[in-house]
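Dear support,

Our group has been running a series of protein-ligand predictions, and this particular one with LLP is the one our PI (initials K.S.) wants archived with full inputs and outputs. We had some confusion internally about which version of the output was final, so please treat the block below as the authoritative record. The input we submitted was:
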Amino acid sequence: MDYFNFKGNELFAEDLKVTELAKQFGTPLYVYSKATLTRHMHAFEDSLNGKKHLVCFAVKACSNLAVINVMAKLGAGFDIVSEGELRRVIAAGGDPKKVVYSGVGKSESEIEFALSQGINCLNIESEEEIDTVIKVAKKLNVVAPVALRVNPGVDAKTHPYISTGLKNNKFGVSEEIAFELYQKMAKESCLKISGIDCHIGSQMTSGMPIIEATDKIIALYNKLLAVGIKVDHIDMGGGLGVTYDNETPPTPSEYCAPILERLKDLDVAIYIEPGRAMVANACVLLAKVQYQKDNGDKHFVITDTGMNDMIRPALYGSWMTILNAVKHEDGETVLCDVVGPICESDDFLGKDRKLNVKNGDILAVRGAGAYGSSMSSTYNTRRLPCEIMVDGDKSYVIKKRQTYEDIWKDECILG
Ligand code: LLP
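Confirmed final output from the archive:
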């Protein structure tokens, strides 16, 4: 559930009309709802109650400092995949001791920075990375808390680009290799074996794959116990899907209950790393209709936002719901492609939509909070949008619209 609702014909963000926000801050505009973020964080917290746990918000889904700060104040930990994300967490007031660090390509200097900040756990993804962590830990004279990311060969039944738990994905190591590597790591006094980590994919709309993965991780946990290796947490990653169209994903509590049930008798904390489910529906992207035209059989609605601000439809063919921020009582509904100003044919927000729009209308792209702003670019030298967060009847700028000079400030002309 979110706090973007119609009152009469008008879409509101909490207590504010989104058309007023568009007028005040301009478009394209990312509008976040603090109450929705809060609600989602509580939903995850509540669903893991009764067992020691850490909910680590996946920063890659939305890395705005204000969003991280809201989550930190609610007690969240963070899942990061780069030094930059760790620096964001710290800048936003997050606690490095609640940070887990995943990713197949962490550089030596990134590992050094993470260990120097005292993060909770490094989720190691290869044998060679173990060697780098040992080298850095010895150099810093610290004991590095580590987990291995296990790739359990479970099909998350999602888009192939966001499936990560199959044997032909680059992520993690198999259970067999993990078993060997844990024994190797156990011999190193500069490593503390802290957990077992796993993340099988994103936008999962069924709870079955994560149950299958949990069972495989528990089997590894027991195998490790049998050789005297005891971990203190099991991290089942992120991946819970959201409703973009007519998907019916489990709720956080439906998703977590079977994991909790399976882990309840083990002496471990549960970590999870939700990104999308936390933030997708806590945000709409507002765009203005600029022009309309017919080409051949197609009617095009041309807006001032596109793949530069929201790349998901172009990259994954994702469906994003597009709504009129004010519903018309007159006019007619037409079948149209909603497109942007970028010079690419895959610059669309939605294809074959039924909309009744007039030029100047504000459209709202729902579910824009996850992998929206964080994947945006300045392609075609278009400025990154302004972002605001609504809290009740107040709105706060959480990212100023870029200036053109911002875009090229790091570029230099020869001589
Ligand atoms: N943990 C790890 C290690 C991850 O790689 C990811 C996402 C998450 C947690 C969070 O997953 P979530 O709860 O958000 O599903 N750009 C794509 C999604 C890429 C997901 C990458 N990894 C999209 O827009 O659909």
